[in-house]
Amino acid sequence: MSYPIGTPGKPWNKEDKKAWFELQSVKRSYLDDVVSQLDSLSSDFNIEQYGALSYDSDKYPLYILKSKQWQADKPVVLVTGGVHGYETSGVHGALAFAKRSAKDYFADFNILVAPCISPWGYETINRWNPNATDPNRSFYADSPAEESAAIMQYLADNTIAPYVHIDLHETTDTDNSEFRPALAARDATTHDNWNIPDGFYLVADSERPHDAFQAAIIKSVEKVTHIAPSDENNQLIGVPQTQFGVINYQAKKLGLCMGLTDAEYVTTTEVYPDSPQANDDICIDAQVASITGALNFIVNK
After folding, report:
1. 64 located within any domain
2. 243-261: per-residue pLDDT in tens?
3. Which domain holds residue 28?
């Protein structure tokens, strides 16, 4: 597939990245959609600003919710959303969990919720940041993405070592129509089109897969929405399925958000909002069910 920016066979230079940036436009408001909801959560959480994006520090402050009943001897749960800003249910699923369900787990866990790691990406409905960098491939030392660096710095500064990390994502039809072609053009690589799975699935960390943990999340989510079937090769997005609805990635090697800590239990959710069987509410409910399914497993194991 061709892409309108860059020279075929050559990785993007600064001018190409600038041309890409100039095509982007604001389509929704982070302050109105996300930040405006935080005050309503102040009875259960301390609302902490852990930074602001340099692109516009007034428009893009970064917030994390920290449970008020914080105790040093309780394990920490980290929920992240909006690492890819265009993946809407990740952002609103994180907020919905904080509103609806988080208090049910305060007795057992300290809970952190970072609802929107990439607010510029949220507003422009983008996978990348303004520098054409993918935050979800940038969770490593000296990160090139300030979105990734900011949350890593917050955890380091506060000596927080999560026991559980659930990173909320979506797989959308635009992954094939826009984002993978753009990636192929940016890096001068071949774009291999693949079928988008119709349904929910999980990406586990191959270094700490905890199959029973992943299975418990799938069982929780399938009460809300359908789980993606594998293709004829028993794969999802071109990756072998390890169990129903689950594939594994090397989280730290790839710089993924779920690899940003040494948490014992980690997973990345993938909701499919473009399914004819889904809608916005179902997608948000699936994200909440992912978190509650994960925490119920740990509490009861």
Report:
1. yes
2. 999 999 999 999 999 999 9
3. 14-300
Return d(Cα 139, Cα 260) in angstroms, integer.
6
CA 156 to chain centre: 20
> What are the residue ranges in the chain where pLDDT is below 70?
1, 193
Q: Are 258 and 251 spatial neighbours (Cβ–Cβ below 8 Å)?
A: yes
Indicate the number of domains in the chain: 1
Q: 220: which 2 tokens?
A: 């929780």
Closest CA to 27 of 80, 70, 88, 81: 88
The tokens for 275 are 């399914």
CA distance 34 to 28: 10
Let me know if residue 7 belongs to a domain.
no
Single-letter code of the amino acid located at 211: D
Is residue 2 one of the residues assigned to a domain? no
191: how many CB neighbours lie within 10 A of its CB? 16
Residue 187 lies in a domain: yes
